[in-house]
Specification:
mainly alpha, Growth Hormone, Chain: A
């Protein structure tokens, strides 16, 4: 048993990753919160809004693939600098848009920038944490997506009411540049970080060889020949689209179904997205706790994934109730489970792959999840528009919830079939 380290600098790095993810999702979610205002201003149909969301998801898919491989080559420090700069500029430039096409272009640019966050974040965790702590660290930094989603329903309506929708984009977009200053000041890879104590560095490397921070990574062809790669791809393809729905359509769902005024701070949305924070940290802590209890790593991760998949199922009950707070509770449980799944599905990459391949594999899986998102978002737009014209839009949402409740179980079965024991890859 490795003794606890002297020093906690690695957790400061985790806090930086958490903050980056918070800003990432704040900039990403603002469009969903402003949808009722912007669709009246620009006369959007549900299908047109779906296309705008798809523009983000499509470039996010391509960007995940490119950034994943690029960060494996240039390292996490520079990778994050480029990513955050691009997405912060894109977020602010939404304020200059005057039409539907312009929003599509800005969402596409935002997708390119934001696609670097998870390949960079997961690789950074692999560099800075031993396996026994990685799921918890990923859960903490991934919970930033939930804090961003919680802050947005309070902050954005306030800015909208006081200053208008343009300043909502400008103010939230500018926060990324403040984060960049902190990143430049505090971050360097462990081997070069002078603030890191020798005992903590040895603890970080206690699993064996240190993660290769940059250099030559395996080709996509090599990685796609491996069942382990397809395990992560499947886990993302079937589940990422559900998170996109929770992020981009839930505000409109509550506005439509329960007449929620999105120009005021939204307690139901705050409660829902608070659940995601609990899920992220709790899901990561669950598998880390099982490992400390002596479970093999692959069994601990797979058990945590199964618990998450089962916890999404109760969202199916929403179609049988008109009680808003019961719906809030059911959706909160489902989004929490979604994020518990996310904390563990990202961690299995660093469990199975050497450091030089981590970002590339995360990029491949992220692209698959985004492709699934494009397909799902297209379907959502057409389904909701059809039932909206028929005067039964709530029925459309019920169909979407049916897919949400079953997709994680399908993903878990595919993962178990592909890699029953999640054996490490020897490249």
């Amino acid at each position: 048993m490795v003794k606890p380290p002297t020093g906690n600098y690695r957790w400061l790095i985790c806090v930086l990753l958490f903050a980056a993810t918070t800003i990432n999702y704040l900039d990403r979610q603002i469009l969903g919160l402003l949808k009722p205002v912007l669709e009246k201003l620009f006369q959007w149909t549900e299908i047109e809004y779906g296309y705008i969301v798809m523009a983000f998801t499509a470039t996010y898919a391509i960007g995940q693939l490119v950034y994943g491989r690029w960060i494996d080559k240039i390292g996490t420090r520079l990778g994050y600098i480029v990513s955050v700069t691009v997405w912060s500029l894109a977020a602010m430039l939404h304020a200059a848009v005057r039409g539907t096409v312009g929003f599509g272009v800005m969402r596409a640019l935002l997708g390119i920038g934001e696609s670097g966050n998870y390949p960079g974040g997961v690789k950074t965790v692999a560099e800075w944490f031993p396996k026994r702590e990685r799921a918890l660290a990923v859960g903490i930094f991934d919970s930033g997506s939930n804090i961003g989603a919680c802050v947005a329903p309070i902050l954005v309506p306030a800015i909208l009411a006081l200053y208008g929708w343009q300043l909502a984009f400008i103010i939230t977009g500018s926060v990324g540049f403040i984060w960049l200053l902190l990143w430049l000041w505090f971050y360097e890879v462990p081997a070069k970080q002078k603030r890191l104590s020798r005992p903590e560095l040895e603890y970080i490397r206690s699993d064996g060889e240190p993660v290769q921070e940059s250099g030559q990574s395996p080709s996509w062809r090599q990685l796609l020949r491996l069942r382990q790669t397809w395990t992560f791809i499947a886990g993302k393809f079937f589940t990422d689209p559900i998170w996109y729905f929770f992020l981009f359509w839930l505000p409109a769902y509550f506005h439509t179904s329960f007449h929620l005024d999105l120009k005021k701070p939204s307690l139901p949305l705050v409660i829902v997205y608070t659940g995601t924070m609990i899920g992220s940290i709790g899901g990561g802590a669950l598998s880390s706790w099982l490992i400390k209890k002596g479970w093999p790593v692959y069994k601990a991760r797979k058990a945590a994934l199964l618990v998450a998949a089962l916890a999404v199922v109760p969202i199916l009950v929403t179609r049988y109730t008109d009680n808003m707070w019961l719906v809030v509770a059911l959706i909160s449980l489902s989004v929490a489970a979604n994020q518990a799944w996310s904390a563990n599905i990202f961690t299995i990459v660093s469990d199975m792959f050497p450091g030089k391949a981590v970002s590339s594999v995360v990029g491949l899986g992220g692209m698959a999840g985004a492709v699934g998102g494009v397909l799902f978002e297209s379907m959502i737009g057409y389904v909701l528009e059809f039932f909206k014209q028929a005067g039964h839009i709530v029925t459309g949402y019920n169909i979407i919830f049916l897919i949400c409740g079953t997709s994680f179980g399908v993903a878990w079965l595919v993962i178990h079939w592909l890699t029953p024991k999640m054996e490490p890859v020897n490249l």
